[in-house]
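[Q] Does anyone have a clean structure-token version of this?
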Amino acid sequence: MGWDCMVAAMKVKQRFGAGPGAMRDALARRNSTVNPTSCFATMEILSEAICQGRPMTGQTFNGADRPFVPKKAIDTMTRLVAGDAAIFVSVAPDHHFTVLPLSDREIAIMQGFQGCYGIDEWINESGKIPMLTKVFLDCFDKLFSPDAGVRVPAAIVLFATPGSVEDVAAYFGVQASFVKSMSTASPNLFQADGKASLAA
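[A] Here you go.
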């Protein structure tokens, strides 16, 4: 784990009550039969640990009567990363990840990618923790481009480790992505001390 990643891990611990190691341990304890690379399971355990049974606020961005509007999703994400609440995101085709604002200029993405890597590999091998907020928002915007030549490089920045570039490129190269939903764990839903334990 590089120095920048170690500093980011300390920020995660300070803000959310536990470091990435506790996230990995919580996922492992949750269910030994869960695929450790499951992006949904990874996001689910993080959301449960941070919210601790308290309700989250969320928003869907597409539906039969609600066509996806990229600007609305981008504006919402821009507002959310300026705060200090965890953001749980689901995008098409079917990827799920957690965004942790670390400061006014950095975020940390926490995720697995089905069949490619778990959160442990992401933390230790991606080299993308922390990520500059402006880089994240730029790539988040480009992720919804109908042009695969724009969309795929953005997806690689957001979601690929060195060993999963081809898989991520293939996954997001097939169709334009869109946000299915975003949910947030507001800080006032955390424990009284303002921190959320990520232990199971």
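[Q] Thanks! Anything notable?
[A] The first strand starts at residue 57 and ends at 60.
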